[in-house]
Amino acid sequence: MGHRPSTPHGDLAHALSPAVPVRRDRRSVRSAHDVFLDTGAVPPGLDPLVAASWRRSRSCGVDPDTPRTTSGLSPDELDAYRAAHPLHDLMPVVRDLVVDAARDDGLVVAVSDDAGRLLWVEGDLRTRGAAERVGFVAGAVWREENVGTNAPGTALATRRPVQVLGAEHFSRPVQQLNCAAAPIQDPDGRVLGVLDVTGGRAAGSHVALSLVRATVASLERELAARAAGARDAAGDTHPALRLLGTPAWWSPDGERRLSGRHAEILALLGAHPRGLTAEELAVLLHPGELSEVTVRAEISRLRRSAGSVVTGSRPYRLAAQVRSDVDAVRDLLAAGDVAGAVRAYTAPLLPRSFAPGVERMRDELAAEMRSAVLADGDPDVLDGWTRTDDGAEDVEAWQQLVARSDQGGPRWARARAHLAVVDAGLR
């Protein structure tokens, strides 16, 4: 299957009811929660994001009275995992920007990994005590599948900033708390984890969500600066065309974003060096619903924005000098440099595309990557692969990483932690 936009967005659109004003007061939401648990129906007026999350929580079988937050890691394993995590070096920034202020406001600040495991939980001691009583502690997993609707878990599920107020939490024991959270992404758009602020009234204010957003923006700028510095130090150069993750076109004037349709056209032309006619492109993009005239109009607009990247017309071809990050990955695989290919494979190919031709390309590239990684078996390669969007769901790769890593080491602890989350989700 291809990578499609995550289902939370579809749920959100389904839940949206613009004719009814959203009510977030405790009494209304608690009443809606009771009705939902009894009947499965969402009463009008509930925040659409919360309604969608409640549906996901219910479908995952979350017990609203007994959330599952078990750690599965020893203290030493958690320490090793945190030390190896890419957000570890940013914790001084988090403490400077938000933790110190949070203590004064009676708040707790948490940073999780991309699987919802809380890595750091710091802040006001009294609020930490209240949070600990519901399992909100370092090492615990707060995915929606485990706990139901909650800011860190729902931010991961939707890949967007969220604020969950009291009774909006799916699990009743958590309804005493308010929380606001946002995902933290690296420069390639990969989610590394979540920043969360939890507490009483202060955590339910607009200021709390604004603080979380601003802090995450600062962290992502820092990640981008460090990545740029590393590339400069290595003398790295970007391919002209980025198709992995968020598409972009690089020119001497700088980087420009590409529309989804333009990126699809360029990806397909790159995979067919002999060229494609407008009719062939229409079939690969949207069979039966896209005309040749529309394709020609799109290519005309593409040429105006990106210059002579597309040559000819009968058929259309990608200019010979244009290389993409997909080309770079395939070249590394062909050369037997699996570690280099994993580093270059920063995200799936155009993950939001539904075009049949692109979906096939995406699936083929992911399968080639997976096959090469599992055949290679090097712990560094396996570790890198499991940090990608495709590898994160590859149970066999995680199992190999446990088997091939030094027991008790950071990689071993990380892999064991992830498999514990998977195992808990299957129970």
Automatic annotation (TrEMBL):
Ranges for domain GAF: 120-218
Any Pfam family hit: GAF
Protein name as catalogued: GAF domain-containing protein
Naturally occurring in which organism (per UniProt): Isoptericola sediminis
